[in-house]
UniProtKB/TrEMBL annotation:
UniProt keyword Lipid biosynthesis present: no
Keywords, sorted A to Z: FAD, Flavoprotein, Oxidoreductase, Tricarboxylic acid cycle
Family membership: Belongs to the MQO family.
EC number: 1.1.5.4
Top EC category: oxidoreductase
Organism (species): Galactobacter caseinivorans
Gene Ontology MF annotations: (S)-2-hydroxyglutarate dehydrogenase activity; L-malate dehydrogenase (quinone) activity
Reaction catalyzed: (S)-malate + a quinone = a quinol + oxaloacetate
Protein name per Swiss-Prot or TrEMBL: Probable malate:quinone oxidoreductase
Functional pathway: Carbohydrate metabolism; tricarboxylic acid cycle; oxaloacetate from (S)-malate (quinone route): step 1/1
Length: 500
């Protein structure tokens, strides 16, 4: 008998044998599991989630994931260059990715893999709103750059406060400063990724996958040509092994330590920097019902891109809600339900230099987080009043958002860099993979998982393409370069998802 990561194992410990083991019950594992179940229906799949149901951690709409990120309103995806110009390339890439995601949703609804679309997706205008001459000039340049492209050709722009009042009454209410500008795309969406994850996982289980909640994976180690997972049943406190040919670690912030335990070379040099946050959530139904948009602004100087302020309508479990934030914070936990030892426990000799380099080069981020932590409730309200001048303190409650673990990776020049996107890690033989990072995250789960399948199963992928194209018809096409195909695809998905 011996102890491993706080659990007891012995020669008599039972073993479950699987083709595929999915660690975590969020949108990434749910999406990958759905693809695999369709293209290889004979494979045995197991999913192990630490919490009581799927989608409760990073995919939960109150834990950051709540926008169909398609770069329509998120200004950090189209920053101004040194000469003031705006390169649309990144925004176009993200929007192309979300088009694939929409098609996957449409397939899932049409095949009754998920319930009616209103259970997880709603049409919602996406707006950008800025204050001041420099920001106004930037937003106009951004609009001109993006709207020249097929994917953004419905984007509107205005500097007229009366027009902004029609688009988003709360933004203009009580505003005397008129040096403002806004852009809008009516055809945006709001996605409840928690509800979607839960439905996809339920469908996996109904079709034969072994789904286990309140089961924590404590270790991953090589076992022959595959992997052995040590799993603890949190209810019974019993431990068992899972032997799997392929493992995907979709555990949000918990992915880094598990991939480190696997010992694969590809994770060496990677670290993580956790950023926590808070939101103000509206409790006044009259105020909630007067706002029907996602309104994104500019990030504060020194703030990380994922801290862009937004006055954000969301639909959570089918009910309309309104929030503002996020306000930055810091906790060494890698998950909202994690441990204080997560950050120091992730330090290795292989990632020490990158982590120290990032700490040295990101003092402005540290300063921002400290400043955010010290803000009083009134100061938090003042930040919101830049976007909703008439906001009343009594109408809002403070809630804690989820943890995001930003990727730290080696850099030949700086020693290490802090990334604000997502990073797919895979072993050389493709037998284990995991996802690190955050935004745009959930909204691009479909293309990320399609890319993972191609990377980890290069010999099988060509034989899967026909089935995958039934699920995502424009796979391999660039919609921005084919306006007719884009319009046809959009009309089709809008009709199925009830977005028109």
């Amino acid at each position: 008998m011996r102890f491993r990561d706080g659990v007891t194992v012995s020669a008599a410990t039972p073993t479950l044998t699987l083709d595929v083991a999915l660690v975590g019950g969020g949108i990434m594992s749910a999406t990958l599991g759905t693809f695999l179940q369709q293209i290889e229906p004979g494979w045995s799949i197991g999913l192990f989630e630490n919490l009581k149901r799927a989608g409760l951690e990073s995919s939960d709409p109150w834990n950051n994931a709540g926008t169909g990120h398609s770069a329509l309103c998120e200004l950090n995806y189209s920053p101004a260059g040194p000469d003031g110009s705006v390169d649309p390339k990144k925004a176009l890439g993200i929007n192309e990715q979300f088009q694939l995601t929409r098609q996957f949703y449409s397939w899932a609804v049409s095949q009754s893999v998920v319930k009616e679309p209103q259970s997880f997706i709603h049409p919602l205008p996406h707006m950008s709103f800025v204050i001041g001459e420099d920001n106004r000039r930037y937003l106009k340049t951004r609009h001109d750059s993006l709207s020249a492209n097929t994917l953004f050709d419905t984007m509107e722009y205005t500097e007229d406060l009366d027009q902004i009042r029609e688009w988003a009454p709360l933004v203009s209410e009580g505003r005397t400063h008129k040096n403002v500008a806004a852009s809008r795309v009516v055809g945006g969406t709001d996605v409840d990724f928690g509800a979607l994850s839960s439905q996809l996982v339920d469908s996996l289980a109904a079709k034969g996958a072994d789904v286990r909640f309140e089961h924590r994976v404590t270790n991953i180690a090589r076992s022959g040509s595959g992997w052995r997972l040590t799993v603890k049943n949190k209810v019974s406190a019993q431990t068992f092994f899972v032997d799997a040919k392929f493992v995907f670690v979709g555990a949000g912030g918990g992915a880094l330590p598990l991939l480190q335990k696997s010992g694969i070379d590809e994770i060496k040099g990677f670290g993580g920097f956790p950023v926590s946050g808070e939101f103000l959530r509206c409790t006044n139904e009259e105020v909630i019902n007067r706002h029907e948009a996602k309104v994104y602004g500019q990030a504060s100087v020194g703030a990380p891109p994922m801290s862009v302020p937004h006055l954000d309508t969301r639909y959570v479990d089918g009910k309309k809600a309104l929030m503002f934030g996020p306000y930055g914070g810091f906790s060494p936990k890698f998950l909202k339900t994690g441990k204080l030892w997560d950050l120091p426990g992730s330090v290795r000799t292989s990632n020490l230099v990158p982590m120290l380099a990032v700490a040295k080069d990101n003092l402005d981020l540290v300063k921002y987080l400290v400043t955010e932590l010290m803000k009083t409730r009134n100061q938090q309200m003042e930040a919101m009043r830049e976007y909703y001048p008439a906001a009343n303190l009594q109408d809002w409650e403070l809630i804690t958002a989820g943890q995001r673990v930003q990727v730290i990776k080696k850099d030949p020049k700086k020693g290490g860099v802090l990334q604000f996107g997502t990073e797919v890690i895979a072993s050389a033989d493709g037998s284990i993979s995991g996802l690190l990072g955050a935004s745009p995250g959930a909204s691009t789960a479909t293309p990320i998982m399609l890319g993972l399948l191609k990377r980890c199963f290069p010999n099988q992928f060509a034989g899967w393409e026909d089935k995958l194209k039934e699920m995502v018809p424009t796979l391999g096409h660039t919609l921005n370069q084919d306006s007719a195909l884009y319009q046809q695809t959009k009309e089709s998905t809008d009709r199925v998802l009830h977005l028109a």
